[in-house]
Amino acid sequence: MAIPLAYNLRNLSARKVSTVLTALGIGLVSWVFIFTLALAGGFQSALQATGSPTNAIVIRNGSTAELTSIVARDAAASIESQPEIARAPDGTPLATHELVVLWNLKRKNGTPANVVVRGVTAKSVALRPKIHLVEGRMFRPGLEEVVVGKLAQARIAHCALGDRIKLAGRQWSIVGVFDAQGTAFDSEIWGDVELFMPVFDRPVYQSVTLRLDEPSHFGALRKRLEADPRMSVQVKHEDEFYAAQSATLAALLRGLGLFVTLVMALGAIFGALNTMYAAVGSRTKEIGTLLALGFSRGSILTSFLIESVLLATLGGLLGSLMTLPVNGITTSTMNFASFSEIAFRFQVTPSMLLSGMIFAAVMGALGGFFPSRKAARRVIVEALREA
Amino acid sequence: MKYLRLIVANLLRSKRRTFLTVFSIAIALFLFCTLRTVITSFEASLRASKATRLVVRHAASLVFPLPLAYRERLAQVPGVTGISYGNWFGGYYQDPKNQFAQFAMDVPTLLDLFPEVVLPTAQAEAFRSERTACIIGGALARKYGWKLGDQVPIIGTIFPGEWRFVVRGIYTGQTKDVDENTLFFHWDYLNESLPEGRRNFVGIYWLRIASPDLAASVSGRVDAIFENSPQPTKTETEKAFQAGFISMIGNVQLLLTIIGSAIVFAIMLVTINTMMMAARERTREIAVLKTLGFSDGLILRLVGGEALFLSLLGGALGCGLAALVFRESDFTAGGFFPNFRVLPETVLLGLLLAAIMGFLSGVAPAVQAARLEIASALRKVA
Amino acid sequence: MASENGTLIHLRDVHKVYYRDRIEVPVLQGINLDVHEGEFLALMGPSGSGKSTLLNLIAGIDAPTKGEVRVAGESLGTLKPSRLAAWRARHIGFIFQLYNLIPVLTAYQNVELPLLLTRLSSRERKKRVLFALGLVGLEGRAKHFPRQLSGGEEQRVAIARAIVADPTLLVADEPTGDLDAKNAAEILTLLKRLNEELKKTVLMVTHDPHAAERAHLIYHLDKGVLQS
Description:
The complex is a heterotrimer.
Chain A (H helix, E strand, L loop, with lengths): L4 H10 L1 H33 L6 E6 L12 H7 L15 E12 L5 E9 L1 H6 L4 E5 L8 E5 H6 L8 E4 L2 E10 L9 E4 H7 L7 E5 L6 H10 L5 E5 H45 L1 H10 L3 H27 L6 E6 L4 E6 L4 H27 L3 H6 L2
Parallel strand pairs in A: 3-8, 5-7
Antiparallel strand pairs in A: 1-9, 1-10, 2-3, 2-9, 4-7, 5-8, 6-7, 11-12
Chain B lengths: L3 H8 L3 H28 L1 H5 L4 E6 L7 E2 L2 H6 L4 E9 L2 E2 L8 E5 L1 H7 L3 E2 L2 H9 L3 E5 H7 L6 E6 L4 E13 L8 E5 H7 L7 E2 L1 E6 L5 H12 L6 E5 H11 L3 H30 L1 H9 L4 H30 L18 H28 L2 H8 L1
Parallel strand pairs in B: 5-10, 7-9
Antiparallel strand pairs in B: 1-12, 1-13, 2-11, 3-5, 3-12, 4-8, 6-9, 7-10, 8-9
Chain C lengths: L6 E14 L2 E14 L3 E5 L6 H8 L7 E6 L2 E2 L5 H11 E4 L11 H10 L5 H14 L15 H13 L5 E5 L7 H17 L3 E5 L3 H5 L3 E6 L2 E3 L1
Parallel strand pairs in C: 3-8, 3-9, 6-7, 7-8
Antiparallel strand pairs in C: 1-2, 1-4, 4-5, 9-10
Pfam families (chain B): FtsX, MacB_PCD
Protein name (chain B): FtsX-like permease family protein
Membrane topology (chain B): Multi-pass membrane protein
């Protein structure tokens, strides 16, 4: 025989202040839980989505980021003539060689940021299907023009369409803004690689990126290029290359988040214990009555446990709702692998919300168990006698 | 104080509740101290920086080096009393996850310009006289178990290949804010090992100036000298340089503050609830005390004092635990936070926060108790 | 302390109205009462007659809707809450039906409570607490907690608490209402002694005729009106 749920609901609403305070306390734990997951997830997916599994990137052996890599002109030419590379409609290989430098610019709030300035070729956009212009036009090769990613435009000073920006002692017109769908490219500034090389005084490229004609050909290409002693390069899947850059920081963020939420959950469980012990204490007589009426100890235990889980889940729901406004907010950090600014968005996913709710329910169950057991173990006569 | 016994007796009434409340507050303050320490450990480099030291780097970013030839011209700038230089090496030990800072430094001037790097004279001599020697910080030595005479292989990411350095010295920081997670080796050794075209370039010059007041004028003069050269410079105080680096990390401070506030707020809500429940259960006793002649103000102080006492106890536990746990642990979270240690200011701030929590969680029940109508309170339960 | 003619309690046209769910419930209707110093007065009446309310008004823990309550030389209606609390501490010793000892404090600490409000040193306080406990015959129970005492003992501790600060007036609300005959008799004897030996004015509410017999004077309260 089960005690009706309405009994629990009425009890929760009878002590409104206590219910709301406890639920909010638990809700905030869920909120921090989801918040840190959304932070780590947003950062990781920005970098992960930057690379494409059908692309390969070639950098110098031993480098972990493009910035510290060097690919000589002749090596680049030889890489781009490999047979495993897919062809553009005009029959030329789908490959690009790029120059990457960090340039210290001011954010709109005046603080400095290291922005990735990338010299690209006509094939660079074709190799990244996620990128498309949303404002203006592409830069014209040979002219002092650049296009900027939309997050760079949003965060870096003087990056609006039509502005001029000073790089390497020259003024560059911003002629276009591109959307790279939240990937790392969104934080970059792109211009003509052949013009950049003399201007930035860089005689070499940093990387070569290419599209494979067949994903299965990656192994052969990699083996041949990495064995070539004249180049001393390493070949990686583009997606894995970028994912690796995010691994350490994302793991750190997740670790911090997990540590904080688990410890904090303990505090919230203590609070739930207090609330439920008080609830059990103030209803001693009721419990005695229920037992006298013939409800089993199991149903008393279940009933109080349900009440606690209900209370906590209500909190989890509140906490989850409170994370929704955070979704999509842009923040930035330094990508420690490349020392460059990377902007990304908080990403609250349905599965995170669900984990937050489950997390809250578990807190409720843990916080409710001992008081419920205490309730179920009351001796009828004594319970009835109490005030 | 004669009323303290009353407060203590009330706290001992429900030992379980008091224990749970004190510990949930302790947990909140422990987390607060931890998160706050993340922020202060980022800022340790600021505290360790010297007001009489300037940093000269390429105007564009650290990625671009400056010619070694700048050294002579920098040394001649009036107000400059010393100069050292070096390159960020950017290597790792065995696995890219093992991150720590390595600098190729001009060894003859290193210890002169950085008096906070403390090295026994014999070790300093051994370091100076051996081309492939290096010195490492005490924390780094403990982390990897490196001893004097050990060969340390470092994989270069900017300067490819495996580099082997012999540990000839283990330095300690002059103050606790000095990073002990760095490896210094000979710039000359790096330079000679590079191909012809990459030689004689310097990442950073450090200038010592006669007085902190000269910082602006010397910086201005240095940058003016190289303004129209192919490698323009950016000169700033060491503190400004470190602050710029920290600000590149982004909104970490804001994010951690948000998380920390949420934690403290959550536990405060829970504590308010506990305090209110505790006061509600004692309605009759409070009415009795009032009958005996305890004034409203005294009741307010007694109930409020109980909340304050609980919170401060929890706060002291939480802050103390954090200070203890991170004191000698050399915890760096994978090299991200060198100098992870709880500052006395953080503990004080935590205790202040605990007091505020206690005050806020005590206000509602205390006011409720003080306003209690004796006659109706006695009637309700009797 | 009392007025010129020795009147300790002076009530004129005292009314008290309660509101229960916004319905007016008149409890006291035009009470006039004078009690002289040194008297032992019993107040009788059926439940709901308002005798406890009257006692509360005299003890300064409730306020009349209308009328004058003058006790120990103070018109209680004119006192601010903080002054009223200080007045209670000085003049009133209250004895409850259910003893109302603080469960987390020992018998000694319970008795000491009213003395905390005075400027007495802890040595002086100790002397007085032990004296009061001796008076009720419970020196040996000083370290016991209320739950370790019998009902009669609890009430005696409560009486010690009521007299420890040497109040002007002892008020007792059904002091024997929860006790068996033997314990009740002991408590009444104790109150009688306090009245006779220490010259305390005692005002006792009771519905027990045996208890009332011990008093000098018996008043009856019925439907909010006093009859002697």
